[in-house]
Amino acid sequence: MGFEISKDTLLKVSGVAAAAASGFSLVAPRDFHKATMSSGTAVSVEALRYHGIVGLMLGGTHLVLSAKAGHTELKKDALKVAGAGWLACAAHNAYNGYQSGTQPRDVATANAIGQAVLGGLCLYKGFERVI
Questions:
Q1: Is the per-residue pLDDT at 131 higher than 80?
Q2: Residue 9 contacts residue 50 (beta carbons within 8 Å)
Q3: Domain of life here (predicted)?
Q4: Distance between CA 9 and CA 60 in Å, rounded?
Q5: pLDDT over threshold 80, residue 48
Q6: Which residues contact 124 (CB under 8 A, 6 or more apart)?
């Protein structure tokens, strides 16, 4: 028997990941900026708080959906959207760290790898039995 992760567990992981980063951004936007961006990169507290609100809403949606029994097709569709979103975040972090220089490379690399793995797993479970 190989490694198996359920759709509900993956939605929970996605929800917690989105809520954790977004909560940090909402509550302590300047600290979030210092932890994730290169020095000298412009900061917008208002934009980071907005990011926090939207991310908490997204993360909460994944957590609520994961707690509901059934709804298999809806969960698969949510995982497809989450997968695409996490992969877009991974690409953006990689760009920031390796092209624009707006993020330290170690931070950008760690974020990109984690987001790419989560995005790939979400897409895999979202398209499971389709491919």
A1: no
A2: no
A3: Eukaryota
A4: 14
A5: yes
A6: 83
Q: How far is CA 76 from CA 89, 96, 125, in A?
A: 20, 30, 7
Task: Single out the residue of 4, 3, 20 nearest to residue 115, CA to CA.
Answer: 20
Cα dist from 60 to 14, 85, 125, whole Å:
10, 15, 20
Q: Could you give the CA distance from residue 51 to residue 122 in angstroms, rounded to a whole number?
A: 22
Tell whether the model's pLDDT for residue 94 goes beyond 90.
Answer: yes
Q: Any idea where the domains of the chain sit in the sequence?
A: 7-126
* Listed residue (50, 108, 48, 58) closest to 85, CA to CA: 58
Burial of 95 (0-12, 13-18, 19+ CB in 10 A): middle
DSSP secondary structure of 46-112: HHHHHHHHHHHHHHHHHHHHHHSS--HHHHHHHHHHHHHHHHHHHHHHHHIIIII--S-HHHHHHHH
Is the pLDDT at 37 greater than 90? The verdict is: yes
* d(C-alpha 54, C-alpha 52), whole Å: 6
Burial of 25 (0-12, 13-18, 19+ CB in 10 A): buried
